[in-house]
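seq:
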Amino acid sequence: MDYTKIIEEIKAELKGESKEDLAFLEKQAMKYRDHKHAKQIIDEISKMAYDALPQEKKDEMTKALFYNGKRLDIIFREAKAAADVHDYITSNKLMKGIVSTIQEQFADTSGKEYYSFRNPLEEYIYIHIFNPVTKFHKTPFNFSEMLRFNGYVLIELKKVDEAIEILKKAVKYNPVNAEAYFELAEAYKLKKNNDELLNTTRDIIEIATSTSILARCYTNLGFYCIEIGDYKSAVAFYYQSMRCKENPAIVGELNFIRQKTGKDIEKPTNIEIEAAFSKYDLKPGANQKVVAVAFALGKKAIDNNLNMFAKLCLGIVCDLTDDEEVKKLYAQIK
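struct:
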């Protein structure tokens, strides 16, 4: 069924009773979350849900979703457009309104925390790795991405200390958002804070959902080891990164090590690579909890005919494990 027909049918079922309509619209959002036009359908359902709210609830939402009469996601688009033309000052000014609204309307309180998970996979990875004890609520927009972007803008403006504080908040709103962690790692590089660079890289490895993410982590470990003068480990991490994903920039880093040490670079053995990881209390490869969660959700999605989500989850397992049986299962998804 096409987008227009779906929306017409949903609207035809609305009764004009707030509680009943909101419950119905929530079910419709779940029903079409795997549709090829899911974003447009859910955006339209969200508008219907807003219209169905009692006036006092609309007033509450206006405070939470708007700044100076403009919706936060629209301000965010304007801030990104300014950054695209390198107008970081304007971009940062726009982001300040978003940040102030987030801090005022979505501050954690006892028994209530807010998170910006992008899909059920991220939510379940968070639950299995962090074992939360407090009930959490979803934010209306992707605050983690908004704050990550603001951190990037602040770095461009050379306001690194301010960027670090914002990026910590970005990580807090989504503790499994690798991009927010990577931005934070870049800020720590600029501050020459090697300890926090290492700690942040460890955090990313724990939640990595692709070999590309792991490759970036290993490159950061190589950078860290150069900074502290552990060139042998740096070489091992760089080679492990290239096993995951080719990166021409690593050639330059290896040449730097060659010049620094005055020795030719030899390809490390598997034992030498494992020794480098062990030295920093790490292991090559993905966190098996992430793999297990992705596989379990992928299988469940197949059972429920949620093919797009099944492909997302099992695609992650294929990438992280190269398991032939999972590849066969993935290939069977229509």
